[in-house]
Amino acid sequence: MPVHEIAALGAATCWAVTGLISAGPAGYLGAPAFNRLRQIFVTALLAIYVLATGTWRELDAGSAGPLLLSGLIGIFVGDTLLFAALNRLGPRRSGILFALNAPIAAVLGWLMLGEDLAPMAVVGIALTVAGVLLAILFGKRRAQLHAWETVKGPLWIGVALGLGAATGQAIGSIIARPVMATGIDPFLASMLRVGIAAVCLSVLIQLPIPAVKPRAPLTWKVAALTALTGFIALAMGMTLLLFALSGGKVGIVSTLSATSPVIILPMLWARTGERPAGGAWAGAALVVAGMALIFMR
């Protein structure tokens, strides 16, 4: 049985589920407040693991700085923009825009780290961009009336937020990549990255800026759903991905774990009762095909 490949699909499924669960609490609290609560919970989970296993001993000053900077850009900026895009565009559009982090990271790796960018990878980047454009512009039928398919405000603002989220995630990955290549424990690295994001968001929310304040008072239900998104994405999704990478081929695992834009479509269909448009399916398929070409080196 291809257990490692199944685990990679499991990780993608976890991230698709997270996108659906996040829509409610992120819209209720607002992106900064939702992301802060989520990051505090995730940091606490990671801290328990790091302290229990003793992996904190692997940390040194040379690796802490880049990881903190990576978290500042990739999670504090990237995740906050992602949930702002989610509130404007819904889980389908924001998820497929966020998938652009892979081709953006490939281009940045070529420009900044001198990594090879094979001709097939260039074709993959073009396919991914084409798939995202197709899904955004032709991914909704007129008969679809659910709130998740309604664009709140100008479309270009939501797209800009999604592109900013993908770019932030890609830059954060590029900064962290040399440190991760040293073999540092990934959960320790994640704790630092998520922790600095939680601190920055906590400071941001204290500033006298109405736009970053919580939109509504926190309830137990919203807190539980927010914590659940962190648990599914990190404790389950990341663990499955790490297991998949431990025994599967990196290209195949990376491609399978990037299938969230496709996996979320039948979930949306079941949740809303509205069949996604043909453009949504075709765009998501192109994105996955592009990912395959980018990662299959």
Summarize the structure in short.
This protein is mainly alpha-helical and 297 residues long. The protein has helices at residues 3-29, 31-53, 61-98, 101-112, 119-138, 155-180, 186-206, 220-247, 250-257, 260-272, 278-295. It is globular and about 55 Å long.
Can you tell me about this structure?
- The chain has 297 residues and is mostly helical.
- The chain has one domain.
- The protein is built from 11 helices and no strands.
* Principal-axes shape call: globular
Alpha carbon gap, first and last residue: 24 Å
SSE pattern, N- to C-terminal: HHHHHHHHHHH
Taking the sheet with the most strands, its summary is: none
> What percent of residues are in strands?
under 5%
Structural class: mainly alpha
Instruction: Give the tally of β-strands.
Output: 0
Helix share, percent: over 70%
Compute the number of helices. 11
| Radius of gyration from the alpha-carbon trace, in angstroms | 18 Å
Mean pLDDT reading: 88
Which spans of ≥5 residues are poorly predicted at pLDDT below 50? none
The number of distinct structural domains comes to 1
